[in-house]
Write a structure and sequence with these properties.
The complex is a heterodimer of chains A (339) and B (386).
Chain A (H helix, E strand, L loop, with lengths): L2 E5 L4 H12 L3 E8 L12 H14 L2 E6 L1 H17 L6 H20 L4 E3 L4 E4 L6 E4 L22 E2 L7 H11 L19 H7 L7 E5 L4 E5 L22 E6 L4 E5 L1 H4 E11 L9 E4 L7 E6 L2 E9 L6 E6 L2 E8 L1
Parallel strand pairs in A: 1-2, 1-4, 2-3, 4-7, 8-11
Antiparallel strand pairs in A: 5-6, 8-9, 10-11, 12-15, 12-17, 13-14, 13-16, 14-15, 16-17
Chain B lengths: L1 E2 L10 H7 L15 H21 L6 E4 L2 H19 L4 E5 L4 H12 L3 E5 L9 H7 L4 E5 L13 H11 L4 E5 L9 H4 L5 E5 L10 E5 L25 H39 L4 E2 L10 E5 L5 H10 L2 E2 L4 E2 L5 E2 L2 H5 L4 H5 L1 E5 L6 H20 L5
Parallel strand pairs in B: 1-11, 3-4, 3-5, 5-6, 6-7
Antiparallel strand pairs in B: 2-8, 7-8, 9-10, 10-14, 12-13
Classes of the chains: A alpha/beta (339), B alpha/beta (386).
Chain lengths: 339, 386
């Protein structure tokens, strides 16, 4: 039996995570993070979600607190997100939140308060390796969230429990139903929690000044105009307001000259990804790796040489700022940000 | 367990519970009816009104029963502002920055609706800045709201001086005071006398939650928030909460009667707690001018500790305390009161309120004295080193 501080978002996954920990006999306390109090106080920290978490905690007979981390969240997650888009990169705020908030400030506070572990309802597993505990894919491959945990300080995994990583989503919902948890049939949150009404473009437009610029072809010829680089990301096809015959993709975003370059699919293909700010839990991995460049979707094969991932096949370019997670089988053995 | 959060809510006094019970069973009727059952309820309602009026130094016709302190504050601030706007003689609202959120949010609403709002800062000791107040008043000011006792740091506000300034500089203004925190510590009949509107809440002095009073002195015009059947002199519609009102009256009577005994007893307890905490946590600092503070409040900054974490650790050690103003989600925001007092954000986020009341005992303070310095020391020594 251990003392565990479980993060409860008010969704079904973390509700079941808390329930499982209680069933396993741990000394469990629930906490909901208030991260965002912007004009749309919804997403992961709306009053209704906090109330769901509180009611589930009450049903489980555990104490529940709300921690207000909104100041740090704005500084460490939202500001870099906005700045990143303004600079023509494509940041993943969930990755930043996991590293800076959940396994950053919350883990430190849990330690201060004497908790042995933190826990969440992520679909991922903590597995033992010769180098210590590491994070690995959840068994429900379609729901796997190990990618957004890939840049967390690896030392955190020795102090982390991920109780639902061995379950499928269907099993999670079934368990919630069996326990009569009010979150059993709750819809999943799919989007960035602090962006609701209006979507990403409106959110960014309100925070990034208009910086109109040129849309050019790969040979440099002018195709049209755009209202700001923050609306574009590498590989994007929709929203290109230029009339061209075949399918075109954003192949480059240059914030300094406010230029968007578009081209055909071949112009997007790369055989290397240069990484920065890398994290290698057990030293730089040497063998063949599975390379994942977005939260969900296809993976590639590759090897690491220095800070460069050499891909086995040409692969569509990864937007600068995106996380590249490297796996040996199901275990995260490295991560970095595409340059 | 040491319950040290009386400023948030007090346990009900036995006299209030007893006063409530008949109206939950034997006397069920609506006080507005014409039959004998209604007459019994009406009689109880008016009896309670007379007893409340007697203890507040006003006429029964000046008592308006409401659904609580926040409603009383909203009715006072919005009602008086709307009445002035209807008359056309004033359009300004002046509030102290350390008011309860019920007053500040009402002022915010009026501002969005086109009225002028001035928010007056406080001194670092937690008392409204009278020079700044004077500068904010003018002959178009409709409402001035300055509380009698601050709910976070417990400082008593100079209401008589405020009233003098209002009379001199804002002849059309109505003075409202939020006296929600006052009855346990002050004679509201005297201390609240300079104000035309006085808000009270039952559960802050041993009465029930969800019952409040607004004293509306004769001649003060208010536009109601809730309209309907003309209850409460047409100022607050809705069938009266007879059980709650009876309990409110009993709690107020008991509070006033027992104040001479309870006040020194609670002050002794608070002083013992304060001494023990300041001795046991040498860098702790008291917020709010001790010379202006009511007997039950102890608000301390503990440098380097996050209040949010300390409250969890105290809860685990069976000490119920509070910090800042809890928002609807239960998260702790930096206290707007400490910010209005000009204290640094860091200090605001490391401050905790211990509040004692009629139900506080020696055992409560014994427990707190035994565990609080220890909890603080453990939190500090556990500091995570990355």
């Amino acid at each position: 039996m251990a003392s565990v501080l479980v993060m409860m978002s008010g969704g079904v996954d973390s509700s079941v995570a808390a329930a499982l920990l209680v069933e396993q006999g741990h000394d469990v306390t629930g906490v909901t993070l208030k991260l965002w109090g912007g004009e749309s106080d919804s997403g992961c920290c709306s009053v209704a979600d906090v109330e769901d978490a509180r009611r589930v905690a009450a049903q489980l007979g555990i104490a529940h607190y709300v921690f207000n981390f909104s100041d740090d969240f704005a500084r460490a997650v939202v500001d870099p997100y906005v700045t990143g888009y303004a600079n023509g990169t494509t940041p993943n705020p969930c990755v930043a939140c996991n590293r800076e908030m959940k396994w950053g400030r919350l883990l430190r506070r849990a330690h201060d308060l004497g908790y042995e572990y933190v826990a969440t309802g992520h679909h991922a597993r903590v597995v033992p390796t010769p180098d210590g505990p590491r994070v690995a894919r959840g068994v429900d491959f379609g729901k796997d969230q190990s990618y957004v945990l890939a840049t967390v300080d690896p030392a955190a995994w020795a102090r982390t429990l991920l109780p639902i990583g061995t379950m499928t989503k269907a099993e999670v919902r079934a368990h919630a139903s069996r326990l009569g948890l009010r979150t059993a049939t709750k819809a999943e949150s799919m989007d960035v929690c602090f962006i609701t009404r209006g979507g990403r473009d409106a959110f960014l437009r309100a925070r990034v000044g208009a910086a109109p610029g040129r849309v050019v072809d790969t040979d440099g010829s002018l195709l049209g105009e755009h209202s700001g680089v923050a609306s574009f990301t590498i590989g994007q096809r929709r929203g290109l307001d230029v009339a061209v015959g075949e399918r075109r993709y954003v192949v480059d975003v240059d914030a300094s000259s406010s230029t968007i370059t578009i081209g055909d699919r071949d112009a997007l293909l790369r055989t290397e990804i240069l990484l920065c700010d890398t994290v290698f839990p057990g030293g730089a991995p040497t063998g063949e790796l599975t390379v994942q460049t977005r939260a969900h979707g296809a993976t590639a094969r590759g090897r690491l040489r220095g800070d460069t991932v050499e891909l086995a096949e040409p692969t569509p370019r990864v937007a600068p700022g995106q996380v590249v997670a490297l796996y040996d089988a199901d275990v995260v053995v490295g991560a970095g940000y595409a340059v | 367990m040491a319950y040290l959060d009386h400023a948030a809510s007090t346990p009900m006094r036995p006299e209030a519970v007893a006063a409530m019970l008949p109206f939950l069973s034997e006397i069920p009727a609506n006080p507005s009816g014409s039959h004998s059952a209604s007459r019994a309820a009406k009689s109880a309602l008016e009896d309670a009104r007379e007893r409340v009026a007697a203890n507040l130094g006003c006429a029964p016709a000046e008592i308006v029963f409401t659904g609580g302190g926040s409603e009383s504050d909203n009715l006072a601030v919005k009602g008086a502002a709307w009445a002035a706007r209807d008359r056309g003689d004033a359009d300004g609202v002046v509030v102290s920055g350390i008011e309860h959120k019920a007053v500040l949010a009402a002022a915010d609403r009026l501002e969005r609706d086109g009225m002028r709002v001035a928010r007056v800062p406080a001194t670092t000791g937690g008392v409204v800045d009278l020079d700044a107040l004077a500068a904010a008043l003018d002959d178009r000011t409709a409402v001035v709201s300055v509380m009698l006792v601050n709910n976070e740091v417990g400082t008593i506000q100079p209401l008589a001086d405020v009233a003098d300034l209002v009379r001199e500089r804002a002849p059309h203004a109505v003075l409202h005071t939020d006296a929600v925190q006052a009855p346990q510590w002050l004679d509201v009949a005297g201390a609240g006398a300079p104000a035309s509107l006085v808000a009270l809440s039952g559960h802050k002095f041993g009465g029930p939650k969800g019952v409040g009073v607004l004293v509306v002195r004769a001649g003060t015009r208010l536009v109601p928030l809730v309209e309907g059947g003309g209850h409460e002199w047409g100022t607050r519609a809705g069938t009266q909460n007879v059980a709650g009102v009876a309990a409110f009256a009993a709690a107020l009577e008991t509070t006033v009667r027992q104040r001479p005994d309870e006040l020194p007893r609670i002050r002794t307890l608070r002083d013992r707690l304060e001494r023990a905490l300041l001795d046991g946590i040498p860098d702790a600092v008291v917020n709010g001018d001790p010379a202006q503070r009511v007997a039950g409040l102890l608000h301390v900054a503990i440098p380097g500790l996050e209040a949010e974490a300390l409250l969890v650790a105290l809860d685990c050690a069976d000490v119920c305390a509070a910090s800042g103003s809890a928002c609807s989600s239960g998260a702790v925001d930096p206290s707007h009161v400490l910010v209005a007092m000009g204290l640094e954000r860091e200090r605001a986020l490391s401050s905790v309120r211990f509040s004692l009341g009629w139900a506080s005992t020696d055992a409560d303070v014994d427990h707190a004295v035994a565990v609080v310095p220890d909890v603080v020391a453990r939190l500090r020594s556990n500091r995570f080193v990355a």
